[in-house]
Specification:
Elements (H helix, E strand, L loop, with lengths): L2 H17 L4 E5 L7 H9 L7 H6 L6 H4 L5 E8 L8 H5 L4 E4 L8 H20 L4 E4 L7 H7 L4 E2 L5 E2 L7 E8 L19 H5 L5 E3 L2 E2 L5 H7 L9 H4 L2 E3 L3 H5 L23 E2 H5 L3 H7 L9 H15 L4 H9 L6 H13 L3
Parallel strand pairs: 3-10
Antiparallel strand pairs: 1-2, 2-7, 3-11, 4-7, 5-6, 8-9
Helix pairs in contact: 14-16
Keywords: 4Fe-4S, Cobalamin, Cobalt, Cytoplasm, Iron, Iron-sulfur, Metal-binding, Oxidoreductase, Queuosine biosynthesis, tRNA processing
Pathway: tRNA modification; tRNA-queuosine biosynthesis
GO molecular function: 4 iron, 4 sulfur cluster binding; cobalamin binding; epoxyqueuosine reductase activity; metal ion binding
Length: 352
C-alpha cells in the first residue's frame, strides 16, 4: 500500500474505533526500548510481589516484536467505564458499614467487552484490505499498555503510573491491536501535565506510590485484595478500610478526573447493587451466590475464599454493630483456614 492509502486507512481505523464505543484510537511504533531500564529496576526492587509472571516475561513486555513477530504498528484504544448513576465513590468510602468495590468492576468483565470490540475492528479492517497479521490484547499478555498508549499520544503517565488524558482523566480501560501493517504513527504528547501535583501520592492509604511514577505493588490495595493469594499482611489490614476489591483513591484524588466522562455502555452498568451494598450483606453470600452473581464479572477471578477474606478485613475495620459482630461470629470457624484467620483478626479488632 502507498503512504497515502495507509494514511487514509489509519483515519478509517480511528473512525471505526469510535463507532465501536472506544473514546479514541491512536497508532504507535514498536520501539519501546526507552522503557526497559525502568521496568528492570522495578522488577529488581521486587515491587511486583507475587506476580511472578511479571518477572517471568521480563523485558518481553517492552519488545512487541518478540511477543508477536512481524509486528510493525501498535493500535491503542481506550473505553471509559465510569457509570453515570453509580453511588458516589467518596460517600461509600466514608461509610464503614458499606463495601467499596473499584468502579471498574461494578459491571461485566471489561476483558471480554474490549476484546470483542477489538476483534470486530480487526474484522472490519480485514474486510477492507484482505487478510493481515494481528493480535488483540486486553490486559492479557506481557504488554506495557500504558507505555504503548503514551507513545501513541493517548495521554501521559501520571505519578500513580496510570495513563491520564486531558479530556477523559483516567477512568478508562486500555486495549491494543498489534498489526503487521506499516501504519503512520501518531506522535506522543509534547509534555506531561501533572506538574508539581502530588495528590495521588498523598491520597494512597498504604503509601504504595513510593516515588513519582513508581508503585510498590506489595503495598497497593488493588494488589492486596486481588492479586495476593494468601493472607493480607497485618500492617495493611487497618489501612484497607472498607475496600473489598481494588482501590480508586489515587484516581479519585486526581484533578484531571473532573473531566472524566461517563459511559453509556450497557455492559458496564452496575450489577447486583455492588456500588452501594453493606459488608454484612456480601459476607452472607454462599459460594453458590458468589459464583452465580459474579459470573461474567472481573471479580469472579479472585474466587470465593479471597472474597470472604477481603470482606472480613472490611468488617474488622467497620463500626462495631450487632449485625457486624453476628456476621463475623457466623464464620468464626470457617472451613478455609485463610478466611478463618482473617475473621478472627476482625473479631479481635472489636475486642472479641
Amino acid at each position: 500500500m502507498h503512504s497515502e492509502e495507509l494514511d487514509q486507512l489509519a483515519l478509517q481505523i480511528k473512525t471505526w474505533a469510535r463507532e465501536l464505543g472506544f473514546a479514541r484510537a491512536a497508532i504507535g511504533g514498536v520501539d519501546l526500548g526507552h522503557a526497559e531500564a525502568s521496568l528492570q529496576d522495578w522488577l529488581a526492587a521486587g515491587f511486583h510481589g507475587e506476580m511472578d509472571y511479571m518477572a517471568r516475561h521480563g523485558l518481553k513486555r517492552a519488545r512487541p516484536t518478540e511477543l508477536v513477530p512481524e509486528t510493525r504498528s501498535l493500535i491503542s484504544v481506550f473505553m471509559p467505564y465510569r457509570v453515570k448513576d453509580a453511588a458516589d465513590a467518596k460517600a461509600i468510602l466514608a461509610d464503614g458499614e458499606r463495601a467499596y468495590i473499584s468502579r471498574y468492576a461494578l459491571g461485566r468483565d471489561y476483558h471480554k467487552v474490549l476484546r470483542n470490540r477489538l476483534q470486530t475492528l480487526a474484522d472490519r479492517l480485514a474486510a477492507r484490505i484482505g487478510p493481515f497479521g494481528y493480535r488483540v490484547f486486553v490486559d492479557s499478555a506481557p504488554v506495557l499498555e500504558v507505555e504503548v498508549a503514551r507513545q501513541a499520544g493517548q495521554g501521559w503517565r501520571g505519578k500513580h503510573t496510570l495513563l491520564l488524558n486531558r479530556d477523559h482523566g483516567s477512568f478508562f480501560f486500555l486495549g491494543e491491536l498489534f498489526t503487521d501493517l506499516p501504519l503512520p504513527a501518531d506522535p506522543p504528547l509534547p509534555q506531561e501535565h501533572c506538574g508539581s501535583c502530588s495528590r495521588c501520592m498523598d491520597a494512597c492509604p498504604t503509601s504504595a506510590i513510593v516515588a513519582p511514577y513508581r508503585v510498590d505493588a506489595r503495598r497497593c490495595i488493588s494488589y492486596l485484595t486481588i492479586e495476593l493469594a494468601g493472607a493480607i499482611p497485618d500492617e495493611f489490614r487497618p489501612l484497607i478500610g472498607n475496600r473489598v476489591y481494588g482501590c480508586d483513591d489515587c484516581q479519585l484524588a486526581c484533578p484531571w478526573n473532573r473531566f472524566a466522562v461517563t459511559t453509556d455502555e450497557p455492559d458496564f452498568a452496575v450489577r447486583h447493587g455492588l456500588d452501594d451494598v453493606k459488608l454484612v450483606e456480601l459476607f452472607g453470600w454462599s459460594e453458590e451466590d458468589f459464583k452465580s452473581r459474579m459470573a461474567g464479572s472481573a471479580i469472579y477471578r479472585i474466587g470465593y475464599p479471597r472474597w470472604l477474606r477481603n470482606i472480613a478485613v472490611g468488617l474488622g475495620n467497620a463500626p462495631m454493630t450487632p449485625a457486624v459482630l453476628a456476621a463475623l461470629q457466623a464464620r468464626r470457624d470457617a472451613p478455609d483456614l485463610m478466611v478463618r484467620a482473617h475473621v478472627r483478626w476482625a473479631l479481635a479488632q472489636h475486642e472479641l
